[in-house]
């Protein structure tokens, strides 16, 4: 953290993060914890979630983990209530959970469509619904919805995922208007090709990495911490008059 900003307004702030056990989510958990925030996160990866929470708690941070499938809305809203009981009502929500499973458009069934929307879009709305009343009562809050450049650059093989991620920005702008007069900011955080363990294992071979280098304006790779640092700014009071916007962290690739 020594080379990067410290945000005093995040110290002691209750934060909820979905999909926080690995990849970008784990970077979010680590970075918010390092700012002194009280972090609660959920994930279906039980062992990884418990390990991360134990590591950060052992280092003196306030971090809690609840194993939860965000597509089970009742269970997820119950987890949010549990974090509120432990840490105080959330003043920051990061809707990070998602899954970019590859699929052929011609094979998509109504059931598959619904399942993909549930994991990539639906939970974000109902998490907002769960945290917004307390934020309204407090007169402040920051909600950060995670999008993707995939629909902007027309990545092949994930049309339903792209539809959900394009909808994230519509949800962001709609809820920014709904909640803004109560002092709540809602923004989209849009990662590019992020170098996570999962992406390296499944998709990012030498050819793909060369394609990233060719498409980005900046040389070099984008890592989860790069995304997390933008989330910190959007959560902190430093961005007090920023809402209904989308912030792309992609090395200068997409044009929205």
Structural account:
- The chain is α/β, with parallel strands linked by helices.
- The chain has a single domain (11-194, 223-242), classed as NAD(P)-binding Rossmann-like Domain (Rossmann fold), CATH 3.40.50.720.
- The chain is 48% helix and 15% strand.
- The protein is built from nine helices and seven strands; from the N terminus they run E-H-E-H-E-H-E-H-E-H-H-E-H-H-H-E.
- The chain has a seven-stranded parallel beta sheet with strand order 3-2-1-4-5-6-7, sandwiched between helices.
- The longest helix is centred in the middle third of the chain and has 29 residues, at 110-138.
- The two termini are 30 Å apart.
- The general outline is globular
Any low-confidence stretches, pLDDT <50, length ≥5? none
The total count of helices amounts to 9
Distance between the termini: 30 Å
> How much beta, percentage-wise?
15-25%
Number of domains: 1
Structural class: alpha/beta
CATH class: Alpha Beta
pLDDT averaged over residues = 96
CATH topology: Rossmann fold
**Helix amount:** 40-55%
**Strands of the biggest beta sheet: in what spatial order?**
3-2-1-4-5-6-7
Q: Describe the sheet with the most strands.
A: 7 strands, parallel
């Amino acid at each position: 953290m020594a080379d990067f900003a410290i945000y005093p307004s995040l110290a002691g702030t209750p934060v909820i993060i979905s999909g926080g056990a690995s990849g970008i989510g784990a970077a979010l958990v680590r970075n918010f914890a390092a700012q002194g925030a009280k972090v609660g996160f959920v994930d279906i990866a039980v062992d990884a979630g418990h390990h991360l929470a134990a590591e950060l708690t052992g280092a003196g941070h306030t971090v809690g983990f609840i194993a939860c499938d965000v597509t089970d809305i009742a269970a997820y809203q119950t987890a949010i209530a549990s974090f509120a009981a432990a840490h105080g009502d959330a003043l920051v929500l990061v809707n990070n959970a998602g899954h970019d499973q590859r699929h052929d458009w011609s094979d998509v069934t109504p059931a598959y469509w619904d399942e993909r929307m549930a994991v990539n879009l639906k939970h974000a709305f109902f998490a907002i619904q769960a945290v917004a009343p307390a934020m309204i009562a407090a007169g402040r809050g920051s909600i950060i919805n995670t999008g993707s450049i995939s629909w902007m650059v027309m990545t092949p093989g994930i049309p339903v995922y792209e539809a959900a991620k394009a909808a994230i920005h519509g949800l962001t702008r709609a809820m920014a208007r709904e909640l803004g007069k109560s002092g709540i900011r809602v923004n989209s955080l849009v990662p590019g090709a992020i170098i996570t363990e999962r992406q390296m294992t499944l998709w990012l071979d030498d050819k793909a990495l060369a394609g990233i280098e060719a498409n980005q304006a900046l040389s070099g790779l984008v890592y989860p911490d790069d995304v997390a640092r933008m989330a910190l700014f959007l959560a902190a009071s430093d961005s007090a008059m920023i809402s209904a916007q989308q912030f792309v962290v992609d090395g200068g690739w997409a044009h929205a």
